[in-house]
Amino acid sequence: TVFTFTIVTSASTDPLRTYVHNNLADLENRKILLVDDNITNLRILQEQLEQWKQEPTLARSGKQALQILQQPPGYDLVITDMQMPDMDGIGLSQTIRQLYPTLPIILLSSIGDESYKQYPGLFQAILTKPIKQSILYTLVLNELKNNNNIENKKLHEEKISNVLSKDFSKRFPLNILVAEDNLINQKVATKILSKLGYESDIAKNGTQALEMSEEKVYDLILMDVQMPELDGLEATKIIRKRPGKQPVIVALTANAMKGDKEEFLDVGMDDYISKPTTMENLVAVIKKWAINVSA
Fold first, then answer.
1. Which of 115, 125, 201, 248 is the most buried (most CB within 10 A)?
2. 203 and 179 in contact (C-beta within 8 Å)?
């Protein structure tokens, strides 16, 4: 089918897109990670940041962003979109906050989407689209300056973390198994445990957790509730039927609803913590149950 039409238009009075050509004095060549599933949005941000003599890296998904962050050298700032498939800006930022606590994050949010308000402190700034370049410049400048100022603080915290790791694992010596099918959650948990001085083992599903806990005596099992092949609840039931020394089993759950705790305890779990896992949660649960392990 072929058709034609005629429209009457007038010359636009809107100015052409212009870039703000400011230089971030003394803050050039900083590595900034841009995360958005829309390649056009990424390119626009990339061009603007390059005009400001920054070094942007593009990621089309939260998963790709986390993979990029694992590669040296480190990044100075993350700018992420809110709405993305598989892992949205909130989920990505929560994971980043656990793995890289001092890395600043700017969220790009659409008008009307205020779900980020449920997570105060997660973002250094929230920018509503369409993005005004002058505002973006101010936010980027502020965050790079702030990040520059906390480098000494970061080094101090790393020293404290190193002392904590040496002391904590010696005070509470445990063999720990992490049963978790999600690769990102595995890395979060094992990295935190590593900071505390533990060399934990990984089981990718409930069946593997059963096999590994038969071959080696574990003091503590961090058991994801939902896993393929065999979930955490069924795996716990089987472990509790075994003779001999029993491990402390702590449920890992993303959405703890009313009544879930009772269900976890009914199948033989000792405790539960919510995901994403934090150092504070793990420290608390290890301290709580270490006495039972050593008894």
1. 248
2. yes
Domain 31-149: give its CATH superfamily: Response regulator (3.40.50.2300)
Q: pLDDT digit string (tens) for 214-255? A: 999 999 999 999 898 899 999 999 999 999 889 999 999 876
Distance CA 166, CA 28 (A): 37
State how far the alpha carbon of 18 is from the alpha carbons of 15, 41, 101, 138, 247, in Å.
8, 16, 35, 16, 63
Contact 250, 269 (CB under 8 A): yes
Return the sign of the alpha-carbon dihedral for residues 47, 48, 49, 51.
positive
Common-topology check for domains 31-149 and 164-294: yes
* pLDDT at residue 31, rounded to an integer: 92
The pLDDT value given to residue 62: 92
- Which CATH number applies to 164-294? 3.40.50.2300
**DSSP assignments along 28-82, one per residue:** TT-EEEEE-S-HHHHHHHHHHHHHTT-EEEEESSHHHHHHHHTSSS--SEEEEES
Beta bridge partners of 105: 78
- What pLDDT shows up at residue 148? 62
Low-confidence ranges of the chain (pLDDT < 70): 12-26, 111-113, 147-166, 255-258, 294-295
Cβ neighbours, 10 Å, residue 265: 13
Sequence-distant contacts of 66-69: CB under 8 A, at least 24 apart: 66/92, 66/95, 66/96, 66/99, 66/184, 68/33, 69/33, 69/96, 69/99, 69/100, 69/103
C-alpha to C-alpha distance for 1 and 166, rounded to whole angstroms: 75
Question: By three-state DSSP, how is residue 9 classified?
Answer: coil
Q: Which of 287, 276, 251, 252 shows the shortest CA–CA distance to 100?
A: 276
pTM of the complete model = 0.56
Residue 102 and residue 69 in contact, taking contact as beta carbons nearer than 8 Å: no
CB 250 within 8 A of CB 223: yes
Which residue(s) pair with 265 in the sheet? none
